[in-house]
Amino acid sequence: RGFNQPVAVIPNGVYMPPIPQRSDGPPTVLFVGRIHPSKGVGTLLHAWARVAERHPSWRLRIVGPDNAGHLKLMQKLAHTLNLPRTSFDGALMGASKWKAYRDASVYALPTQFENFGMTVAESLSMGTPVIVTKGAPWQGLETNHCGWWIDAGVEACTDALDQAMRTPLDELRQMGDRGRVWMASSFAWNSIVERM
Fold it and tell me: Are 179 and 143 spatial neighbours (Cβ–Cβ below 8 Å)?
């Protein structure tokens, strides 16, 4: 069509707010996002059912708004599976959302598909390591040693959760620190503006 301009692929930017102080709570697996079938909350709940009793000090926190009635289905599934230490906390905004990321020990997004996965970048920007499926383009988690980039499905999610929950909390925090450095260098808005 006669377009000769060079092509640049530039990712979304992520806001890098100051990191709040961590709360002294139990170690937490966090999900943040719409409660929608594509986000893999059901996969996460089934995986949690397999690992929760092996890690009795940990809890699972699901944060996000209902999408098309899927929240009730997920709450019913959690009840049917008799999941311990599991909460559905609705949507969080602003400082409350950033604090949820910061207080978590690991963030999990067992999604079917994401063209980016903004919550992955947000979690890393708060210094929290991530578990995400290969349905999202986050292979850099492995090269930057700040999380797990896994196949989709309950088995892979179970294995990753178990690995994360067996990792000492200090080591998880070091992984999160590496993730924040990665976000600052590659995804912070000043970096995106320079590339634009």
Answer: no
The C-alpha atoms of residue 177 and residue 166 are separated, in whole angstroms, by 18
If 0-12 CB within 10 Å is exposed, 13-18 middle and 19+ buried, where does residue 19 land?
middle
**Closest-CA residue to 28 (of 100, 132, 117, 118):** 100
Model pLDDT for residues 59-90, shown as the tens digit of each residue: 999 999 999 899 999 999 999 999 999 999 99
How many helices and strands (H and E) does the chain possess? Answer: 8, 6
Residue that has been written with the tokens 């709040």 in this structure: 20
Separation between Cα atoms, residue 74 and residue 62, nearest integer Å: 10
Least Cα distance to 87 among 95, 103, 98 occurs for 103
Residue 184: both structure tokens together: 């600052």
Please give the model's pTM, rounded to 2 decimal places.
0.93
Tokens representing residue 106 in the block:
């690991």
